[in-house]
Amino acid sequence: MAAGPGTEGPGTEGPLEVSWVQGFSNKNLAFVNNQTVCYPCGNYILFLDIKTKKTRAVQCQAGQVGAFAANANRRVVAFSDRKLNPVIHIYTFPELSKLTELKGDAQLDYTLLAFSFRGPYLASYSSVPEFVLSVWNWQENILLCSESQPGLIGTSLSFNPMNWQQLCFVAESSVTIWRVERSGDEHHLTRHPVELPDNCGAVSPRKDLFFPPSRNDDPYYGPDLPVSAIAGLEGDEAETFVVQPMTKTAHNVQEFVQKITDVVSYVRREVQKKKDNDKYVNEQGMFKASDLKKEQYDLDCPLSSAVRLKDNIVYGYCTCAPFICKYHFSEENKLENPSVFLSEEKIPSKQFGSGLLCLSPNSQWLAAAAKDGVLFIYNTSTLEAPLKSFNVQVTEEDGNITNTDDMTWIGQRTQKVMREETRRFANQKEEVQMGIKKLRETIQKMMHENEQVPDIEKLELWEFNLDLEEQKQVQAEVEEDVARARKKVEMETLSYCYLQDLIKYDCWDVMCVKERAVKCFHINCQVSNYPLKERSKEELETLKKVLQLKKTETANLKAQKKNLEADSETALSEEEEEKAAEMADGASHWLNGSLSSQYGGDTSILYHQCDLHTKEQKLNQIILLKEIIYKVKTAFNEEFDIVVQQKEQEIARVKERNLKIREILEQLELQVEVWEPVLTDDEMPERALTVQDSEIKAEKYMTREETEQAEMLARLEMERRLAAMVIKEASLLQATVSLQAYLINAALNHFREYKFKLDDERPRALDDMMGGVLEIRKEDILKMDIPPPSFISRSEDLWTEEEKKIFEEYEKKVKELNEEKEEYRQFLRNEWNKLETSIKETTKNFDEIVCKLSEKKLKLEMVIYQEELKIVNLIYALLLDEELDTREAGLHKFLMKKKKEKVKGARKMLTAKYSVEAYTGPYKDALHEEKSLEHGFIKQFADVPHDLLEELLHLYRHRPETPRTETLLDTADPYVKGSPEDYQDALSLLMKAMDELDSPEHMPSGLDPSVWECFCLARRSKMESEELVKWKALALTDKQACLQRRVNENDKMKSELENIFQELTWLKEEKMKLQQNVTVQFLLKQGQVELESTQIPDYSDAVLIDRSVVEELNCALAAQGEKKITAMVESKDFSKGIIQLEWEHKKMKMQIQDLKEKARDIVILPISKDCQLFLSVNNYDTHIAQHLAGMEQSLGVMDKMHKKNVKKHQKKVRELKKCIHLKEQANYELSLQLKEMLVSVSERMHIFEAADTRDISKKITRQRYQEIVKQKYLRILIREQEKQLAILRSEAESWKPRTLHIT
Question: What is the pTM of this model?
Fold first, then answer.
């Protein structure tokens, strides 16, 4: 690959150009315009022109290209380099010139880039360690906003096509919609996670696992903590861990994102079709869900990517097979419950693996890329064969591009040469093939004939092979395969040997006590020992330190106890102390919670179960409990070894007795199986480490040396067998000699009857010949036989008298010998029975020992389980304590994070507040100026005639109809259109509309042109002021909304901080409970427990305390009770005096109350004016008479005036009643007309709804408008008449005669 554009080699003056670039990295690809596709390739970005079939390249100067994105609207390309502190480069197309470089805070790499569909905005996402999502204005090279997402790996990033202020961020297991909040020049990113459906397609509500809404605390298992605390995670790791259980698989997320992409793509095209109609977008710039046309289809093949054309044709890339499926979604194919939608056509593809489809903006070209690294570009009209693959060759001379398949250039050249050779030598090739065919037929015929001849005349198959070189090659390949297989087997054997060594080391070598078993002889009972590992030096040193620490603590406690007993006044006597010590010794098992002290364990080294409060004490207690378990197992192993030795001795004795039994059976010539015990593999575990030849079922492979050695061993075995046969014959010969000795002995006895004396030489010679034994042994009696006389073959009639005597003696001797044999056989049987009885008794006794050992081990297992239960409870307490510490640390880190966010939010809120204050003043000034212009208009044109002034005032207030502008959501906030660019655009449109109104055609007749010009300038100023006020109001509203959002965020942050503080308080309480509420293990006697009632009491709120504490408390309660009784007696005596004083006090209070009431009566005694006048005037009667006369005169005058006024008002009432009657009649007529008009209005409304609104003429609209104005005027007139009528009624009521009451 040559250097890229703009690079210079050594010794050259100009830059080098790209000569050849090839490859596809399976990354993003995009169209930079309607006919050019671009994609990264190594250190380059390739631009492939489909029409001209040329390729251009842009080189990344820093090395390999990282993230990549393109924008077809702006014709720009962005990519990042892969280096420390990477930079984002932005190039224009087709100039391929660099516009700018974006430098952020990324340290290693950017993973995602995305352009907005409109506007100069670019989104980027960096990888480890920042994981920051940033939004840039690449034209001005400004970072607008950024937000961190620790540990979240992104897979996709895209802008909303209708609104650049909405981004869709897809991670491996989550989807998030980010919104860019804009307030003036400030931008903020807010996160809105999308709830993904589960495997069944249902969306379940998100659960907050970091702060669970409810807890299911258990009194035994402790508090219910979050999963992150149990996993031991803190900070960001805990928050990331919490998100994981709520997320779905990446496959489900990909399918869900694909559905979202399809919906967005469909809506985008529908909006582009009806760009002038805004019914799909509401006033906030959001899609209306009710107006969107949604379609859903179940397809016959799973698709990894899909694109849709304008004519409802969809192309999808199939994942299960290399096909591009074509679907036609027409109106006839739509169903309410759609079934599986079949594809119309399947286009075979030469690509493999899941792929991606991309459509050009003009819907003419279709690009397909797959995981095999091949890129194809199809024409969407035909789609018969790929127009071009990624394997292209770019030349500097003519720039021609060679169309290729999935083969490389060398492969194509090789194939071309082969085709030319095939065409040139086609005839020769055909002749050679025919010759080979004939030769093959001849050889097959010869092989068939070879099979028919006798075996001695048959040839081997390899002799028919004409190609010896091929045969040698095949043999060599076979030998290589054999060598390869042998090497593979050797490696597998080596791996098995290594695994064997590991298992042997872990399970055998490191064990100081190997696991073995001992079995009974006659019972199916087996007892195994406890395998023990050799303890390391560190463990022994730790145990030594713990024991020393425990001794020190015990001595310290004893010293403190002695001091307390010396200071105590109620010390126990010696007898009471002895009784207490005996009770303590008897109850030690039950309080310690185990019986390990009875089986070799020293429980005095343990802490008391109620004193385990600190973490160090619990850890030391675990070490001491393990030491006790080790001692208990060691004690049992010693007993087990003794039993094993006993069994070995018993087996040796049984073998000795079995030898005697076999000798007896051999003498008795019986074939009886002798029971002989042996040690099994469980009793001799070292046997498993050696493999016997009998265990190998496969045939053993032997080398030449091993074969020779085996033959030599076979010869030696043959010689040994021959020697054994010789020895056997010698033994038979010895038996014959023994028989001859017996006969000679009998002859000698007979001879001694006649000879009293013999020479000494003859007996000595006999002893030498008989082996020094003149009498035969008992063991040989059963083997002896008396040979019959030689004459026994003759008939008895031919016997002589002497021969008859000899025969009688023979029969007598045979009878005696048989009796001796039978006696000896009975002796042997008795001996056999004694031996078997002895074996049975000894083995049964040993079986009883093993059974007792099994029972003891069962109890020992119970003891070990008791100690292990203590260890498990302590470990669980430590684990729970560690989880609480982890949770507390995590909450503290989370609290610090939230505090920083709160400080940041407070700064944002303060900035927003200052911004609102800054915008409020100009808005008020503009509003005041706008009002002053309206007031100044009348003053300015005060000299104009009244009729012209009215007409000018009407024109002054008239506003032109400006053309409706399209809302550019990528340059303004989706909720407020208040940017300066929009203000200038709206103002320019308004001024253009004013040009028509300022023309002299609209000038009133009789008005001076100079006045009209002044009027036009004033009206323009007024409209500019109104437009300015409107846009400043929008800007102020935007700032106030931003301030309100910041305030809401601050309130939410305060509530979160309060929740964190509450959680920390709860954690401290739980830690205190955990330290005080210790789990204690007790041993309870087994048996029935009788209760007064059937209901079992609840001990969940019970507290376990020591008995001495209760007794001391009872003594203290008794002493306090006596004190209380004494105090009660004193209080009773004292209360009598108090009651008497209270009675006297109450009596005096009642007297005081009576006196106060009398004084109050005197003070409030009433004295009227008549009483005062009666007391002050001398002639009271005369005064009263004069006063009455004056009142009668005034009353007469008032009566006359009242009658006169009543007559006047009655006259007015009659006139008003006539007017009211007339008005009522008029109103009745108007109501009838109103009903008719309502009926006509309803009919016209129905007609209006049924007809098209555009067909209604302007004349009907004007008539309806006049009727509405007329109705409105009549309603106003009725209201004014009702007001006048109400006034007249009130005046009439005020003139009614009133009755005067004179007292």
Answer: 0.56
